[in-house]
Write the structure tokens for this entry.
Amino acid sequence: MTFTRTDKFKALAIVHIFETSRPLGNFAACVVLGDGAGVSYGINQFTHRSGALYAVAKRYLGDGGVIGADVIRSRMAEMSDRSAAAIRRLATDAAFKNALRAAAATREMKAAQIDTANDLYLKPAIDICHKLGFHDPLSLAVIYDSVVHGSFNRVARTVQADKSAERIWITEYVRRRDRWLLSYTRLAATRYRTRFFLSQITSANWKLDLPLNVNGTRLGSIIADPSVPADAASPTVAVPVEKSVLRSAAEFAAKAEARFDQVEARVSAVTTRADSAKSMWATVGGTLWQALWAVFGFAAGLPAEVWITVAVIAGLLMLAYLYRQIALGRLREQRVNLTGGI
């Protein structure tokens, strides 16, 4: 049996939530966890220690990626070195991590992450399911998560159940994996993955019927929406369906991010104008008050140094306001140039 596109979408979304808390992943996610894996990056949290980060970077540069390319290229030798010392050095390299985050906005980096995830994780998980004769969507999600998270074969070797009984085998496997994660201090915190799968097994939700609550994130019908385009490539070009699913998710995420950026820009503009108005009236009010005190001091015959001082303060307040408005104007011009006028 071949897994449907929806089955693959569900597996991808569940693991993306595990990795980045987003059903469609986060291309720019770049963190260093306390698990010794070093920099974890992108939609599947490609790590330094696993070699996946190097694979993504190599693909990005090979596809002609430009943003952050000089920094990423200069760290390739270090990425290929998976020793503890090299992992620690890159984990503290702020310039490298910033370059990865910046590159995530490009088409080349999105494609590099999608293709690497397909080759390293999704396709091998599907191949394992086919080899074992498994066909339930939950089985695919369990195995895909294990391939991404690591040590599938290590735990699978300990399962005693007959592989011909798919649901019994998967149940024993998840229970053994849960105990295995618990046995390592650095991995115990990731048991939310196995606890989720055990809850679905308890509910007999082998088809992964939506909606689902995945580690506190609601996974709704959007993932199975048939209106999501089947392929981002030209229809005359043959593209593996697994890669098509990943690309569809990426396209949807890009559109959603663009909409969010537009809304955020408009809200920020309104907030900026409101703050500017408040600043203007506060400054004008203060200036008038100081000016009135200067006039009163002059009329009342106060010493010259008193009313002159007050007048100088009023002038300084006005100059400060004018400088602030000029600075804000320059910032707004830069924002317009960067966002294309949004």
